[in-house]
Amino acid sequence: ARCRSQGCERLGPLCSSQRRSGIAARRTQGSQERMARGSSAGYDRHITIFSPEGRLYQVEYAFKAIKTSGLTSVGVRGADSCVVLTQRKVPDKLYDPESVTNMYAITPNIGLVMTGIVPDARASVKKLREEAAKFKFNNGYDIPVSYLAKRAADTAQVYTQHANMRPLGIAMIIIGIDVEGEKKVPQLFRCDPAGYYVGYKATSAGAKEQEANNFLEKRFKPPAGSNVAVDPKLSHDDTVQLALACLQNVLGADLKANDIEACVVRHDNLAFTRLSADELETQLTALAERDDDIAGRD
Questions:
Q1: 91 pLDDT exceeds 80?
Q2: Is 13 helix (H, G, I), strand (E, B) or coil?
Q3: Residue 218 confidence (pLDDT) above 60
Q4: Which of 89, 150, 182, 240 is most exposed, with minimal Cβ within 10 Å?
Q5: 243 with 85: CB under 8 angstroms?
Q6: Is 87 exposed, middle or buried (0-12, 13-18, 19+ CB in 10 A)?
Q7: Cα separation of 90 and 72, whole Å?
Q8: What residues pair up with 115 in beta bridges, in sequence order?
């Protein structure tokens, strides 16, 4: 008897070529069945594969990884200052609380808050510090905040297009003040795992990001007949208290100075400075005494 494989002249019911063809066909059918079981099945196994809807599921999973930390961070830009604020959680009683932080200085005058996977955050901070040092060595002046944010976004984007890499599970909010001659310009940028960055008047990241953004949008709502949010004219105290009010509102509980950490940059002190517990307590007390739009009790 001849082989049943088309075009094969070998003897026998099945030859090796037909067996291989049958195995390949079964594998293809099984793969198609697995991919049909779920919307992401089969398309989330490699970072470089687009789904038929044009989605990169591994990048979307990186955004979800940011929320696994359970922390919420807020950044607000004022007229003469910027502030970043985040929750402070010590996961183990044996930890030294002073060693647990999500605030990092990149240069003496530029810093950021990282939200998400801590090891990813520290690796990214190391690269950004090298980038800032290299820029100053080559150009003779400090790296602008916008360019640092661009370099951070460029790195994050590269991690989304190579199969031997994975996206960083972090969102960073960068603050600093660019000095342009006699002019000092507060800057606030946010960079996400997809490599997208943009300047903000106020923004947030983490578990309660959507609720925090809703709160901030109400504080910066555009005037009637306009789609552009108002430009911030907040003083330093108003900037810090708005960030505190936002975090307090989304968490649904009164904040304590030891439960949060905040860093600021100001016109009269360009350094990325951490607020002490006493300074935070003073701002929280002032916020409790307010009854206006910033306090969120309008």
A1: yes
A2: coil
A3: yes
A4: 182
A5: yes
A6: buried
A7: 15
A8: 171
